[in-house]
What we know:
Elements lengths: L69 H9 L24 E3 L2 E7 L2 H12 L2 H7 L5 H12 L5 E8 L2 E10 L16 E7 L9 H16 L5 E4 L6 H9 L3 E8 L2 E9 L7
Parallel strand pairs: 5-6
Antiparallel strand pairs: 1-2, 2-3, 3-4, 4-5, 6-8, 7-8
Helix pairs in contact: 2-4, 5-6
Amino acid sequence: MPPTEAHPARPGADTRARPDADTHAGTDARPGAGIHADTGARGGADTHADTGARPGADPAADDTLDLHLPADFLARIAAGEQPPSGPADSGDLLDELAAWAPADTPAGRFRLEPVRLDRDLPLVARWMNDPAVAAFWELEGPDSVTADHIRAQLDGDGRSVPCLGVLDGTPMSYFEIYRADLDPLARHYPARPHDTGIHLLVGGVADRGRGLGTTLLRAVADLILDHRPRCTRVLAEPDLHNTPSVAAFLGAGFRLSAEVDLPGKRAALMVRDRALRHLL
């Protein structure tokens, strides 16, 4: 992602209306994602340490840094922009994400695990303070800054769920899975019920630039489509000029649907369609 992307606004705002979805996993996208560096030896089990090189990742695709800029979303919310109105969903807005089965990927066994602040805050806050990540997520500072951002989602109605991406037992990335149709983003494109967005950052420096972002993007999009039967599309919106990011999405089976003017950027609206998931 270009190092010049600006991000107004800050955590603590109600993330229930999350506008821009942009996966940041090897790509550079906007809303709070950034591939963030923090390394160290990768340990195995569910330890929250950040690590080193990842086997099996496709070396071709992403050299990118950030995938999302939550600041953009928060700015819209702070400006009073509300999510579109519509019939309320019954039950869990993201179909019991905590119970989703893991996925086997070329890089290893991957699962999404909802964040627990008491356990995960030091790790996620460390990632957020990496300069490469902070440039896009704008959540650098004391742990309380990251805590406020995450707590706003945890205390919401479940339309945005912060998660750790755990690969072969090791937490190595951060995701926000959110209902794009219930987010301010829906005012900027023809939203469909149950559209689901992704924000992502990869935590370890050694996990970047190896195609791992593309692998994770495909895995998470597949998890969403597998566990959300009413969802027909997974969305992201990286900066249009972030060629590596857009390429990573394309490599993960997304297509460029449109160019969209969002606050602070012109975005490439990337879409992964259920109907095309086995073709792309």
